[in-house]
Amino acid sequence: MLALTNNISGSPDNADLCKLAVKALQHCIPYVQQNFLVEQERNFIMSKILEAATQTNTEIRENVLQCLVDIGSQEYQHIQHYFEPIC
After folding, report:
1. CA-to-CA distance for 11 and 87, rounded, in angstroms?
2. Quick check: 69 and 29 in contact, CB under 8 A?
3. Which pTM does this prediction carry?
4. Which domain holds residue 45?
5. How far apart are CA 30 and CA 22, in angstroms?
6. Can you tell me the distance from the alpha carbon of 62 to that of 40, in angstroms, rounded to the nearest whole number?
């Protein structure tokens, strides 16, 4: 999980790597339940995803939004407060 999230960023210099990492994370969501139980890990994952949402690349942003949908449907009880600032 750390290898994926470390490659997710808002920097346009790493757009290709970020795109791959976000797609890979999306496929891993069913397996990260234990990570979302640990606040520090959950904070790190969510901060990286929300950082990637600032990318100008629309494909990355679409993938990030899909990731958020998938995370929200699986882990809503742990992440609802992350959505308050953007809703």
Report:
1. 24
2. no
3. 0.85
4. 2-83
5. 14
6. 26
